[in-house]
Amino acid sequence: MDLKRTVKFEADRDPEFARWISHTVGGERIRHCLQCGLCSASCPLSLYMDYTPRRLMHLSREGFKEEVLSSSSIWLCTACYACMVECPKKINITHLMYALKERAIEERFYPKRFPIPVMARQFCRMVRSSGRITESWLIVRVFLRSAVWRLVGMSGLGWKLFRAGRIAAKRENIQRTHEIVTLLDSVAATRKELAL
Amino acid sequence: MKCAYYPGCSLRGTGRAYEESLLMVFGSLGVEIQELDDWNCCGATTYLSVDELSSYALAARNLALAERDRMDIIAPCAACYLVLNKTQRYIRDYPDIKTVVTRALGTIGLEYHDRVRVRHPLDIFLNDVGLKAIAAKVVRPLKGLKVAPYYGCQIVRPYATFDDQRNPTSMDRLMEACGATVVSYPLKTRCCGGSQKGTLPEVGLDLIRYLVEEAQMNGADVIATVCPLCQFNLECFQKEAGGRRHPISIPVLYFTQLMALALGAPAETIGLQRSLVPVEPVLAAKEIVYA
């Protein structure tokens, strides 16, 4: 029998995580959260989440790192900003969702071949090499690395879009792609230097 | 004053009809534009979840390029519009972000001094051109056409720059100026799921279904959108979302396509033929003659 304690103890918390969330960009006001639940009520995706935004805010600021980073909620968030508009304490919830996503990707808190981090990585790679996104190429690359069989299902739609002239066969490039590489390398260097 | 036109990646792909019709409308209303020199991807919602600081630097390159050319930016894509606005605000509010961005821009010979305004075509049409001037130029009124105006998320949230956050009406008023009838559409700012149809399809389809069904239930002939991703989701997946039990078929056009039509643009120049759900039967039924 797999028995688990259902109540968390103080010692299960990760105080570093709690400190990080309230010091990260957008997290300044998380301690002001009233737990009123307007975020969860306005969220079009909270119906599908394991922890609603209200619960996620509380778990994060108390340092329940495992629960938060392995929660489905951070991947369900589409960044529609409904919660942020309604929050009476003006907490930047949407931005915190981004921060949690970034951290979950960094620490690999997601199932294997999960398409969202795959897409995020391919997206960044394409921006670095071309400066712009060619949607069709991005979609093919993402599904080759996450769910190849779904490419077959999408081929009908792809053909229709191609006939309507909505799929560019050629990849979009900016002229001065070297500027993008220089720019991104500089960000990485400054981040290291200032320990951001 | 001339503005820098920042199309964004989608308007060169699935959203080509948006660009085609937008340029027609700019032309007939006399809005002067020039494409932003060598613009790059704004990072959209995706880059922010991998590397926040880099995403601000990417967006800031576009801001700096416009500033160098002394122009304001027009960003028709909802994601671009939000990301550019957000970047401006975060550079203002967080000194660390400002340092990172300023240094990064310095390495490619650019500067940013917060002198550029980021604007949406809706804002330009309403506040610079004006509804009266637009109504005066309508040669083919969209009489009897019932439109559900769908704003989506990122145009009015979180920064209500030119319209109300909960009940925006700028597109409603534009459509009425073009002679169309606007139907009640309470879900006008509810999320379409973004890229979720690709990544978590069951959830994405649900969100799409609510939106399209509501428009149809409220008697709309056509949905008008402002965002390439919303347009793509609502049009290309409506059949799949409705399934056999709730068959759905409603054209989803960019608001600029409807405007261009009213302003007398020839149909083939505004990308009507690029629709996967044909709009011609609807226009024919309303006796809106176009060529």
Describe this structure in words.
The complex is a heterodimer of chains A (196) and B (291). Chain A has 2 domains: 10-106, Fumarate Reductase Iron-sulfur Protein, Chain B, domain 2, CATH 1.10.1060; 115-194, no CATH class. Chain A contains 11 helices and no strands. In chain A, 58% of the residues lie in helices and 0% in strands. Chain A is mostly helical and 196 residues long. The termini of chain A are far apart. Chain B has 2 domains: 3-119, Up-down Bundle (Glutathione S-transferase Yfyf (Class Pi), Chain A, domain 2), CATH 1.20.1050; 130-285, 3-Layer(aba) Sandwich (Rossmann fold), CATH 3.40.50.11810. Chain B is 47% helix and 9% strand. Chain B contains 14 helices and 8 strands. Chain B has helices at 16-29, 44-48, 52-68, 78-93, 95-107, 121-129, 131-137, 170-177, 196-199, 201-217, 228-236, 238-242, 255-262, 280-285; strands at residues 3-5, 33-35, 72-74, 118-119, 146-150, 181-182, 222-225, 252-254. In chain B, the strands form 2 sheets. In chain B, strands 2-1-3-4 form a 4-stranded parallel sheet. In chain B, helix 4 (78-93) crosses helix 5 (95-107). The longest helix of chain B is centred in the first third of the chain and has 17 residues, at 52-68. Chain B is globular.
Quick overview:
Chain A has 196 residues and is mainly alpha-helical. Helix content of chain A is 58%, strand content 0%.
